[in-house]
Design brief:
Blueprint: E1 8-13, E2 16-19, H1 27-33, E3 45-46, E4 50-52, E5 55-61
Parallel strand pairs: 1-5
Antiparallel strand pairs: 1-2, 3-5, 4-5
InterPro entries: Prok_Ub
Length: 82
Amino acid sequence: MATSRSLTRMFRIGTNLVPDPAPDRSPEEAFAMLAVAWPAVAHYTLDAPVVEGENLVYAGIKPPAQTKGRQTLRMALPAEHA
């Protein structure tokens, strides 16, 4: 006979495992509520949930770093090296 267990929803922000602030809401809405304590979370996306022990863990994924293009600095060599 199969038994079912209730998993506790948690969120991973970096190395922190944070309890769900609103279990009655969707994972996206609950995760957005964490932006009050962690402002950077407002820009994160949620990864697929993973079962870790008795927890259903949603990991927050940082957006990729953006640059305005690559600049190459060229240093002038002394005349004897040119």
